[in-house]
Write a structure and sequence with these properties.
This protein has 223 residues and is α/β, with parallel strands linked by helices. It has 2 domains: 119 residues, Response regulator (Rossmann fold, 3-Layer(aba) Sandwich); 91 residues, Arc Repressor Mutant, subunit A (Orthogonal Bundle), CATH 1.10.10. Helix content is 41%, strand content 22%. It contains 8 helices and 11 strands. A 5-stranded parallel sheet has the order 2-1-3-4-5, with helices on both faces. Strands 6-7-8-9 form a 4-stranded antiparallel sheet, with helices on one face. A hairpin with a 3-residue loop joins strand 10 and strand 11. Helix 2 packs parallel to helix 3 and helix 6 packs across helix 8. It is elongated and about 55 Å long. It starts with a strand and ends in a 7-residue tail after the last strand.
Length: 223
């Protein structure tokens, strides 16, 4: 998932970023609510991890601004405040979940998977489209019932395409979900991962729509 972490404690932000990146997420970090609001206007994120105790503008105020502008991005509140009143306030303002510090990364990852399931319309951690099947918790992938070993980036590309359920996904959308602002992105980086997937899943598994994007072929089979 492409995530925006809003956390003013820089060592903690770095630790969360590293931990979630190791679990396969793409994490951009800002240290203020004002910066977060600017970035969500410029980029698309699957979820925002939002601290409450931020300088100048609180996480609650940031969340309220997001929802007032009709921004639908999923938001998980991250905070040391554990009172029922604070939890209710966050949820009433439009948060999708609420995680109390300190927390385990595995718990946060599980809550992110729950958001991914809800937004994609799946009931569990197994996402499926045609002959393609993946478990977003264990990172296992099957094609025509045979297990396939993928790198983290290959898994992420296939995850995005399966979520699209046969719709065309643009090259720009794939790049935006695969890389942070700081990554030096090669002009053909997405094409390279698409090529790797075709070698592992069959040359007809992904259709290229020139100048538009990529689409999973529901009727494809391994070759």
């Amino acid at each position: 998932m492409r995530l925006l972490l809003v956390e003013d404690n820089e060592p903690l932000a770095e630790a969360i970023q590293l931990g979630l990146s190791a679990l396969g997420h793409v994490v951009d970090v800002v240290h203020s609510a004002e910066h977060a609001l600017l970035e969500v206007d410029e980029s698309t994120f699957d979820a925002i991890l939002l601290d409450v105790n931020l300088p100048n503008m609180s996480g609650f105020q940031c969340l309220e601004r997001l929802r007032q502008s009709n921004n639908p991005t999923s938001v998980i509140i991250l905070t040391a405040r554990d009172t029922t009143l604070d939890k209710v306030k966050g949820l009433n303002l439009g948060a999708d979940d609420y995680v109390v510090k300190p927390f385990e990364l595995d718990e946060l990852d599980a809550r992110l998977r729950a958001i991914s399931r809800r937004s994609s319309g799946f009931q569990d951690n197994v996402f499926q489209f045609g002959a393609f099947r993946m478990n977003i918790q264990t990172h296992e992938v099957w094609f025509d019932s045979a297990p396939v070993i993928l790198s983290n980036k290959e898994f992420s590309v296939l995850h995005i395409l399966i979520e699209a359920q046969g719709r065309i996904v643009s090259n720009g959308t794939l790049e935006a979900k695969l890389y942070t602002w700081d990554n030096d992105i090669a002009s053909n980086s997405v094409q390279v991962y698409i090529s790797h997937l075709r070698k592992k899943l069959g040359k007809d598994c992904i259709k290229t729509h020139i100048g538009i994007g990529y689409q999973l072929n529901q009727k494809s089979s391994a070759s």
